[in-house]
Amino acid sequence: MRKNKTTHFMAGIFIILFVGIFLTLSGRFLYIQATAEIDGVSLKKWADKQRTSTYKLPAERGKIYDNNGMTLAYDQPSYRIFAIVQEAYSDGAEEPRHVKEPRKTAEQLAPLLDMKESDIEKRLQEGIDNDRFQVEFGNKGRQLSLQKKEEIEELELPGIHFKEETVRAYPNGTFASQIIGFAKEMEIEGKEENATTQQLKGVTGIEKEMDKHLRGKDGYIAFQRDKYNKKLLDPKEVVKKNEDGGNIYLTIDQKIQTLLEDTLTQVEKKYEPERISAVVMNPKTGEVIAMGNRPSYNPNNPTDVENWYNDVVSTPFEPGSTMKMFTWAAAIEEGVYNGTEAYKSGQYQPNEKIKPVRDHNGGAGWGPISYNEGFERSSNVAASKLVWEKIGSDKYLEYLKAFQFDQKTNIDLPNEVAGKILYNWPAEKLTTAFGQDTTMTPIQQMKAATAIANNGKMLQPYIIDKLTEADKQKPIKEKQPKVVGEPISKATSKQVLQLLDLAVNGEHATGKNFQLDGYKVGGKTGTAQIPNPDGGYLIGRENYIFSFLGMAPIDNPQLMMYVSVKQPKLGEKKDGSLEMGSDPVAFIFKHVMENGLHYLNIDPDKQKMDNVKHIEIPSVVGKSGEAVAKELTEKGLRVTTTGKGKILKSNVQEGDQVLPNDHIMLITEKPKMPQIIGWSLRDALQLANLLELKTETFGDGYVATQNIKAGVAIKPGDYLGIELEPPNKQKKQE
């Protein structure tokens, strides 16, 4: 009886338990059926996702052009090589589809990937031993060109495959690299939770500053498929078009920028300075025509970069005597300047509490001289006396602020840093007058100097000319010259121009080294001391920042340039005399300015051109290439002809005035590739542009190798690969 009761009790417990489980499961099923959710996850969405294939339609990043439409940055397809090593991949195939012979594969791939055979074989063998499906080849196996991919495919190696990727290409290498910057593929957060996508993103320069405009928006295509990845009859296909990024046109001129880059490279190799900075500007508009620094980097391979910053806008320093043009401008504008008034040069000490100011010849001076001569000789004493005794230190500070030395220029480049007016103590008020203690960037000086070159009106520097949408020429935004101040009058600017003329062309000028053939230059030299971390300033004839801010033609400046070279290694000249700190600065300034003025068709000064022989280009198009080449060669020009027959186009036009030894290029019918070994990058790119070739450059300096051999027939669209080397590694071919 007791056993029967226990049995019934336990049976009741089990019935209740099973009923509870049944009701729970039934309720769960009913809930899932009603809500179609499990743990907050929609089963419908999950199922759709499982049977939906989605493919990204990547947006093309916008291009960056120079002011003439030359492409400076663009998206380029590249290829990643990988090897399938799993034997099962070849099941059922007539020919092997996996790497069957690792040693033979490594032997054939090694020279094309610039890798050791042993390294490739090791990678392949480890993949086989570890039963991997595929292996890759590291950095050497990425970013392969189409030409390299085709060379490898010609080997017909089993198991070797490629994946197409997009890389940002900079066809001119280090050309304006700290302006353009670079972009690289980075993970960008998507709209869905924890979703990321790979996309090119600007890291430095214009690529960073204008990343939003350049980037564009990716699209996608989605459709439903079966378990064999085939589209369903009703695939419910969804397509969202991609939106390519917009384009940017810079004010940079490719020819002048290339000229600047070549010159900076030569000075860097010869003098090994710590830093070089240079900027070329149109003083009538504020447009930056060229800008460069050394050290620089190649944005195609930004590794081991010594200096990421664009020193022209990001590195303030004590400018030295280039500051004096603004001190004299303030005195003239204030109405307290008498250029013929005499003062005692050498040393100046307003009172016993202030350290004496000394002229740059050790404080010896030149006796009593006029203030005009003081500017010509770059006298520190004259500058100090003007501030302390004529202008007044408080009033001078107002002029410093009127020239906006306490502000950024707001140039359209990232990471701009403004200098600092150090003006707390009497000694600092004196030293600021001749460019010590107070700091500023080269671009701040150039901005202030536009007031001198432009009738007193100070212009904002800018480097972006216009923005356009993808594949459209009409600008959505176009920059115009912008006057941001008027610190001096037109009359004052004219008088300062006369002083700048005197500082280069006068009897006692410190800037005689900067005179040009054909153009009258005005400007001011600078020799800035470098602060010593232990206090005071560094000593020694090389421990300075040597600089020059000049403009030409000085009666109506059309081009303005600033150059600074920090701590160059100075040697001896051929005549046995010592090199001066101004020599590397003058080499850069003269080479770029003179050629730049000619290129921009700025009329030379008549009085300076009497002794300069010019050659007028005759009509060449439609004429015999051989006959024209002979005629121009006899006139003293360097001529390159691309073959026989009639001339179709040239880098010069009828009536152009050129100088002896200028390089003339004649493009003929059915052109053949000329020998360009030893050419400058500028000449090589000019030829490629005339021939309409797709060009890729590697390295810096002058052409060392060309992938298209001389004499080979070429046509528009052909690929020209150029490898460059510094001038000290090869002989230049004239």
What does this structure look like?
- A hairpin with a 2-residue loop joins β1 (37-38) and β2 (41-42).
- The longest helix has 34 residues, at 2-35.
- The chain is α+β, with helices and mostly antiparallel strands and 734 residues long.
- The protein contains 20 helices and 33 strands.
- The chain folds into 4 domains: 2-50; 54-250, Alpha-Beta Complex (Penicillin-binding protein 2a (Domain 2)); 254-297 and 311-571 and 586-606, Beta-lactamase; 617-729, Trypsin Inhibitor V, Chain A.
Short account of what is shown:
The protein contains 20 helices and 33 strands.
Record keyword descriptors for this entry.
globular, about 30% helix, five-stranded antiparallel beta sheet, Penicillin-binding protein 2a (Domain 2), Beta-lactamase, about 725 residues, 20 helices, disordered C terminus, alpha+beta
Topology (SSEs and partners):
Elements: H1 2-35, E1 37-38, E2 41-42, H2 43-50, E3 52-57, E4 64-65, E5 71-84, H3 102-113, H4 117-129, E6 134-136, H5 146-153, E7 160-169, H6 177-180, E8 183-189, E9 196-202, H7 205-209, H8 211-215, E10 219-224, E11 238-240, E12 247-250, H9 254-271, E13 275-281, E14 288-294, H10 311-314, H11 324-334, E15 342-344, E16 347-348, E17 357-358, E18 368-370, H12 371-376, H13 380-391, H14 393-402, H15 426-432, H16 442-453, E19 458-459, E20 464-468, E21 475-478, E22 483-485, H17 490-505, E23 522-529, E24 544-552, E25 559-566, H18 582-599, E26 615-616, H19 625-634, E27 638-641, E28 647-650, E29 657-658, E30 663-668, H20 681-691, E31 694-699, E32 702-706, E33 719-725
Parallel strand pairs: 4-12, 27-30, 31-33
Antiparallel strand pairs: 1-2, 3-10, 4-5, 5-6, 5-7, 8-9, 10-11, 12-20, 13-14, 13-25, 15-18, 16-17, 19-22, 20-21, 23-24, 24-25, 26-29, 28-30, 32-33
Catalytic activity: Preferential cleavage: (Ac)2-L-Lys-D-Ala-|-D-Ala. Also transpeptidation of peptidyl-alanyl moieties that are N-acyl substituents of D-alanine
Main location: membrane
GO cellular component, one term: plasma membrane
